[in-house]
Write a structure and sequence with these properties.
This is YqeG family HAD IIIA-type phosphatase. The protein is of the alpha/beta class and about 170 residues long. It contains 6 helices and 6 strands; from the N terminus they run E-H-E-H-E-H-E-H-E-H-E-H. The protein has a 6-stranded parallel beta sheet with strand order 1-6-5-2-3-4, sandwiched between helices. The structure holds magnesium ion.
Length: about 170
């Protein structure tokens, strides 16, 4: 059960994830969280660096879908200008939105990675479907209320797993 909360990989930021890395593992699609994964939760638009990051994957034929628990307004106003398909109000860690993203990209589960900053939504949701999960350090140090609550639980889980020797990456 607790292994569901363990990401397969842990990186400092999305910019540590490159198309070359993913292609080597035959990954053809990315399901990524938005808030505090791609940009700060209160930043309305993609940064130039992020736009280049998106482009680098598109150029290699790797698909990206943004799957966010946030509202239609937030997710569409971020995603539309950069022309990335998205699912809002995703209710992660529930499976439905993940399944829809997989279907829309027309890929197999082992051709997809899930990227996100939260164990209780992104990592748990991806792991439940046996997708490869990559956790990133949150972009912002501030959060909305529910995210703060989630992070508290997350920290407890992480320290427990650390004591059990289940973690091999540094925080
Ligand atoms: Mg997030």
């Amino acid at each position: 059960m607790l292994k569901h909360f363990l990401p397969d990989e842990h990186v400092q930021s999305i910019f540590d994830i490159t198309p070359e890395m993913l292609l080597k593992r035959n990954v053809k699609g990315i399901i990524t969280d938005l808030d505090n994964t791609l940009v700060e939760w209160d930043r309305p638009e993609a940064t130039p660096e992020l736009i280049n990051w998106f482009r680098s994957f598109k150029e290699k034929g790797i698909l990206i879908t943004i799957v966010s628990n946030n509202t239609q307004q937030r997710v569409s106003s971020f995603s539309d200008p950069v022309q990335i398909p998205f699912i809002y109000s995703a209710r992660k860690p529930m499976s439905r939105a993940f399944k829809r993203a997989i279907r829309d990209m027309n890929l197999k589960r082992d051709e997809i990675v899930v990227i996100g900053d939260q164990l209780l939504t992104d990592v748990l949701g991806g792991n439940r479907l046996k997708l490869h999960t990559i956790m990133v350090v949150p972009v912002a140090s501030t959060d909305g209320l529910w995210t703060r609550v989630n992070r508290k639980i997350e920290r407890m889980l992480l320290s427990w797993m650390k004591r059990k020797g289940m973690l091999n990456w540094e925080e």
